[in-house]
Amino acid sequence: MAEKAVLGFLEKNEGIPDSGQFAAECGINHDELVNVIKSLHGFGFVDSQDIKRERWVLTDEGRAYAATGSPEVQFFLAIPTEGIPPEELQRKLNPSVFRIGRSQAMKNQWVEMGKQRVTRKVLNVEDTVKDLLLRVQDGQAINPEDIDALKRRKLIAPQIWKGYSIRKGTNYAPERKKAATDLTRDHLQRGDWKELEFKEYNFSAKGQPTEGGHLHPLLKVRQQLQLIFLQMGFEEMPTNNFVESSFWNFDALFQPQQHPARDSHDTFFLQVPSTTKMLPEDYVERVKHVHELGGYESRGYGYDWKREEANKNLLRTHTTAVSTRMLYLLAQKPFAPKKYYSIDRVFRNEAVDRTHLAEFHQIEGLVCDRGLTLGDLKGVLKEFFSRLGMSKLRFKPAYNPYTEPSMEIFGFHEGLNKWVEIGNSGMFRPEMLLPMGLPEDVRVIAWGLSLERPTMILYKIDNIRDLFGHKVDLGLIKRNPICRLGIE
Ligand code: PHE
């Protein structure tokens, strides 16, 4: 309606000099008109120029007097022709009208304030204040002295008024057709599709983001590692048991029962069920024997091995527990060489910081064959890590209860331009392999590393909590590049 009025008016007139006046003449709300002008301006239908005006508006008090008359006139009219005792007059009027009315009426010399009686000094009075207020209310001009007087009595206050003057714009048309965005059944039935103006396609608008599943960086890196293992002829081990017994996690690995890693500070023990139900008894006997007394040319640890300790359930601290189970199974059949791998979760009761969580993913590989040597281990590691993009390796002697020799693996990271620790490795001890029943000349070379470490390096994440756990950065999970191992 306001839009029609503006465009219609401009069809026959030069322009609209004052939106305030125009609104008043057309009976349109000015705020509504302003919105229409802004929109028409935006589309080039009109050119508009700001107008700012200071104008006077009535205060609350001013509005009250405009309605009921000024206090001085109310005061005057309350005095009967014969006069009235002041107290009685005071009772007739409200206190502020009495107070203000009295002083103004006296100033105007309309009344005589006697001690006994208040009397009129003139016959008639005119309410000029009320008249002035009504004119201000109507937006009519009044002279500067009157403005001053009303301002001093706080009956009017200034207000900045904003409006526009407008003229036809470059896209002026007597009517703005709403551009259609869709061709509907109704358009076709009514036949008005012929006149429709369609909104232009915005080819540079971005489409809705597709919502769907997103692969976590750890999953991407894991998949690439799985491919490497598979290309190298490795088979995946079943790792679907986070809960393990101490026996498979530690004892079978020739890890003594007093070993600090078994301490509850590093290991999460289960309360329910707290112990395992079943272990292969004859094998348990051989493990007990090798711990206590040795055998297979070993002296053992010479301590009193406790079955209760081995029965305790825990969250596996490494996937080497899985490797151990697999090697034991292998030993139950006529020997055949194997290459095994796994990538899955392990749990350690560690203080959480930028690089540690209480759980992580372990990558584990092993080769089991007759007559393998440390040279074979180094060769396999070279092959494996070069496929990860690390062809320069260094080894440092290390200690694991279940491997001898043991080596920490360092790789030169071309991107970071430094040597970084990338894993742990070794040859499983005879004290671990022979009680299982594997042939004497069978050697097992193995290594392990975390999945988080290479993932953080590849994706340049320096806080593990951004990658995994309850503080994970969901933006990162939704938008991360494909994983390309071996290319920096
Ligand atoms: N289990 C070792 C660890 O937790 C890794 C490892 C696997 C070491 C195999 C040697 C051989 O770090």
TrEMBL record:
InterPro entries: aa-tRNA-synth_II, aa-tRNA-synth_II/BPL/LPL, Phe-tRNA-synth_IIc_asu, Phenylalanyl-tRNA_Synthase, PheRS_DBD1, PheRS_DBD3, WH_DNA-bd_sf. Its EC number is 6.1.1.20. It is found in: Cytoplasm. One of its GO terms (molecular function) is ATP binding. The keyword rRNA-binding does not apply. Its cofactor is Mg(2+). Residues 220-481 form the Aminoacyl-transfer RNA synthetases class-II family profile domain. One of its GO terms (cellular component) is cytosol. It is an enzyme of class 6 (ligase). Its main location: cytoplasm. Keywords: Aminoacyl-tRNA synthetase, ATP-binding, Cytoplasm, Ligase, Magnesium, Metal-binding, Nucleotide-binding, Protein biosynthesis. The keyword Cytoplasm applies. It catalyses: tRNA(Phe) + L-phenylalanine + ATP = L-phenylalanyl-tRNA(Phe) + AMP + diphosphate + H(+). GO terms for biological process: phenylalanyl-tRNA aminoacylation. Tetramer of two alpha and two beta subunits. This is phenylalanine--tRNA ligase. It comes from Nyssa sinensis. The lineage of its organism: Eukaryota, Viridiplantae, Streptophyta, Embryophyta, Tracheophyta.
